[in-house]
Amino acid sequence: LNVNLPLRQVFFCNIFHKRLGIHFYHFATIDLCIVGNSGHIKDAALADAVAQPDFKKYWTLGKDSISKCKDCEFRHVCTDCRAYLDEPANIYSAPLKCGYDPYTNTWEEWSSNPLKEKAVHYYQMQEMTPNI
């Protein structure tokens, strides 16, 4: 039983908090789905990669500061994917793949929502979302 996980989910996005990933091509990254990296592990120590300012910008991001998530009753148990956002340039944007509407308490298939069309094209996910 990991007692820290539920507590961490209250304050942070558990997918990013103090995480470090090594990409298939040996690049250090915060998440394998996010574009960008903090250097190749052959060229720099992992401590140097983590010390870069952009690397830690997601570590303290909490669900209470993310649009839509901050109003969702499931935010502290959700394992959302922050790699794909409704508004790609805004790290506080709601997750693209979330199909829940906390304002109406309804679920829908995220891939058929026409409001997500712009982000789907940005991430080049048209094959995954034929209904948009």
Explain what this protein looks like in three dimensions.
With 132 residues, this protein is α+β, with helices and mostly antiparallel strands. The protein is built from three helices and four strands. The longest helix has 8 residues, at 4-11. The radius of gyration is 16 Å and the shape is globular.
Strand order of the largest sheet: 1-2
Q: Estimate what percentage of residues fall within beta strands.
A: 5-15%
- Number of helical elements: 3
SSE run? HEEHEEH
User: What is Rg?
Assistant: 16 Å
Task: Lay out the secondary structure.
Elements: H1 4-11, E1 21-22, E2 28-29, H2 46-51, E3 100-101, E4 106-107, H3 117-122
Antiparallel strand pairs: 1-2, 3-4
Fill in the keyword field for this structure:
132 residues, alpha+beta, two-stranded antiparallel ribbon, 3 helices, 4 strands, globular
Quick recap:
The chain is α+β, with helices and mostly antiparallel strands. It has helices spanning 4-11, 46-51, 117-122; strands at residues 21-22, 28-29, 100-101, 106-107.
